[in-house]
Design brief:
alpha/beta; TIM Barrel; 8-stranded parallel sheet; 3-stranded mixed sheet; binds beta-D-glucopyranose
């Protein structure tokens, strides 16, 4: 048995829009606009085995978050389940659009709601990890240009200030932004996420706006409270070149710069910890990402399962000499046939990185329950807990107990 450090944080991660019912933000508008199109284009997007296994992908309804998992009203039930799974930490996000539905108007009921969520987490002896922006913001801000709005950083910092003041001492860990680079790539390069652009200048501007939003929020929260840990969550890509030429290697270097490094550099000295969110490794050719042919070691989304990437991602961050948290790690696996091995194998790589000197202090599995997977809708299921789409009944998957066992022993 290999032990994890004492006081290691174990939990699951979630995000507001993916589980809370009836959100009204940039994403809820985007999904309504695109649901039909996504359902109609599923044949082009997904392989035959996926189309056969998950026919919901052809229904427009699959792409509307709607009542989601009703977490906004059922959070206590879900937190009880997390507690029963042995978790001692919990990551969730606040929907800014609920807090500030109109420019400068803060909704005291919504603030009270999230205070209650934090209280409910603490009462269950779990450490709350609070994400302030998991890809959603108010509509009035989206209408002004979303993250490119002139005053996005200041507006974000003000909202961060309001929330930090409301939550006070009960929160020790903040995530300002979730995976800013994924949002930038989806919204300004691929054009598949809001605001649906393919514009390099806007992409560069988005890096600037989001990094200054993070830096400002960092300063504002720290001014209120010295003893909090603030960071952003970072998706760490693992690329392999399709050919071993100098040109391909240069391409990979370029890709690493924009995915894993640029944002980190732009927020230097404004991070108290670093985060790893790792999902897959990909092969990169001059034409872009090569479609994965392997159908065995892949998730339901066709993402290649490659545990070594966990180790490599952690070791990439080690040189910064800051505590590291795996703020997301998980897979879409409806039948739960692969999740158990995935958890064990990935945690073995975390353990290996710790033995090699990395200061890893926590792991959050993505996700606690099945949820709404953005432009893919409900069919990919990431939960340790399965949710019946009709009744919304919660049921622990087998892997939920496997994870609990690891937590109980604090070892693998
Ligand atoms: C995001 C989650 C998402 C998960 C799986 C992460 O990049 O933060 O919101 O559900 O990936 O796609």
């Amino acid at each position: 048995m290999k032990k994890f450090p004492d006081n290691f944080l174990w939990g699951a991660a979630t995000s507001a829009h993916q589980i809370e019912e009836y959100s009204c933000n940039n994403w809820s508008v985007w999904e309504k606009k695109n649901a039909k199109k996504w359902a109609q284009s599923a044949t082009e997007k997904w392989q035959l085995w996926q189309q056969k296994k998950f026919p919901e992908m052809f229904e427009a309804e699959n792409y509307i978050s709607g009542r989601a998992t009703e977490y906004y009203t059922r959070y206590e039930e879900d937190l009880d389940l997390a507690k029963a799974g042995g978790h001692n930490a919990h990551r969730f996000s606040i929907d800014w659009a609920r807090i500030e539905p109109r420019d400068g108007e803060f909704d005291s009921k919504a603030i009270e709601h999230y205070k209650n969520v934090v209280r409910a987490i603490s009462e269950r002896n779990m450490e709350p990890f609070v994400t302030l922006w998991h890809w959603t913001h108010p509509l009035w801000l989206e209408e002004r240009g979303g993250v490119l709005a002139k005053d996005f950083p200041e507006k974000f910092a003000h909202y961060a200030h309001i929330m930090a003041e409301a939550l006070g001492e009960s929160v020790k860990f903040y995530v300002t932004l979730n995976e800013p680079t994924s949002y930038i790539a989806g919204g300004y390069i691929a054009g598949k996420w809001p605001p649906g652009e393919k514009n390099i200048f806007h992409m560069l501007q988005a890096y600037k706006k989001l990094s200054s939003a993070h830096n400002l929020a960092y300063d504002v929260i720290h001014k209120q409270q010295e003893n909090v840990h603030i960071g952003f969550t970072n998706i760490l890509w693992r690329f392999k070149p399709s050919k071993n030429t100098l040109f391909h290697r240069a391409l990979i270097r370029f890709a690493y710069y924009f995915t894993n490094e640029k944002f980190l550099r732009m927020t230097q000295d404004h991070n108290d910890y670093l985060s790893v969110q790792y999902y897959f490794s990909v092969t990169l050719s001059l034409m872009g990402i090569v479609k994965e042919k392997n159908t065995t070691f892949v998730t339901d989304l066709g993402w290649l399962i490659d545990p070594k990437g966990v180790y490599e991602s952690i070791m990439f961050l080690k040189k910064y000499n800051l505590p590291i948290y795996l703020t997301e790690d998980g897979l879409a696996d409806r039948s739960d046939m692969k999740r158990e091995k995935f958890i064990r194998d990935n945690l073995a790589q975390v353990q290996r990185a710790i033995s090699d000197g990395a200061d890893v202090q926590g792991y959050f599995h993505w996700s606690l329950t099945d949820n709404f997977e953005w432009d893919k809708g409900f069919w990919p299921q990431f939960g340790l807990i399965e949710i019946d789409r009709k009744t919304l009944e919660r049921k622990q998957r087998k892997s939920f107990w496997v994870y609990k066992n690891i937590i109980d022993r604090n070892a693998i």
